[in-house]
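BUG: 3D viewer hangs when loading the predicted structure for this chain

Environment: internal workstation, default settings.
Expected: structure renders.
Actual: progress bar stalls at 90%.

Input used:
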Amino acid sequence: MLNNKLLNIAFLSTSPPRQCGLATFTQDLIDAKRVVDTNVIAVNKSKHRDYSNKVIYEINQNNQNDYIELAHKLNHSNIDLLVIEHEYGIYGGDYGVKFKMNVIDKFLERYLREYDYYLESAKLCAQQCENGLERNGIRAVVTFRVKKIDRLKDKLEKRNEIKEYKRVEDIYKDIVDLAGVRIALYFPGDSDEVDKLIRSNFNVLHTKIFPQKKKSSYQKLFPGYSANHYTLNLKNELLSETSKRYAQAQIEIQVASVLIYAWAEVEHDLVYKPSSGDLSVEEYEILDELNGLVLAGEVALERLQKAVNLRIGEKGKKFNNHYERSSYLYDSIRNIMNHNENEPIIKKTNIIYNFLH
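Structure tokens produced before the viewer hung:
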């Protein structure tokens, strides 16, 4: 049975005001009585033209990266069908340009095909992290992402000036966070428990501890970004049969407090993506000052966590939620085990809490 929703079709073609028979033909198709929703992706020689509102994208016919970025955009758009209109010469040269791809372009072309694979890998990793944190009563915000094509391209071109990539495999070895998961902890004091959780549930390949010393024109008073980064794989035995293929994906998990992440987002956008030149000394001083306030906030959060644990440890006190019950059970069992290397794993405390509540 056909869906009543109109198909969303895009034509890859030249378009008026460019003087071209194919442009006129495509425009006539769009102007005809429609049973579909139509848009145009205009092929330019070089310069921008004053197109109608039916043109949703433009590409330079001689620029290979435009084709790659367009493919990525279309794969994640609401376009149902792409119609490629062909005429000799409109895609570069007499028969279409034969591009000589450099190593970065080859990598991006391959990564574009693997994009959904990395996205699903990051999603599975985030789900496992969320489940483990909840079981153990650790409060955190878990998010996941994969590298965007345009930002990744800019990063690779800058790094290539130093790295001088020879093969596609060199880039895969260098960029370890194509798929990433972020764990933003409410309480920084939980980082040791999260470390144990990650090491027991994933195959950890490499760990990076921040802060690390970096050369800078400004001498900081405070350490800056403080976090643990883990490069890892999903454990094959913890995946369903249909998901086992994602065990080969390399993923990076970043663990820090919610306060540090908030500061780091501001600092990263200002320092590494300045809109107008390098930062002034005063701007660096303000960022440093904010970092000091964040560290003071983390100390306050650790004190708050101790106060919460003290409260829920008192006899006769009610648990407000399953996180408090998990934390209580975890600490109690851990004390009974006398801080043995085998850490207790708490499961489904939300069910226990709801039942008792």
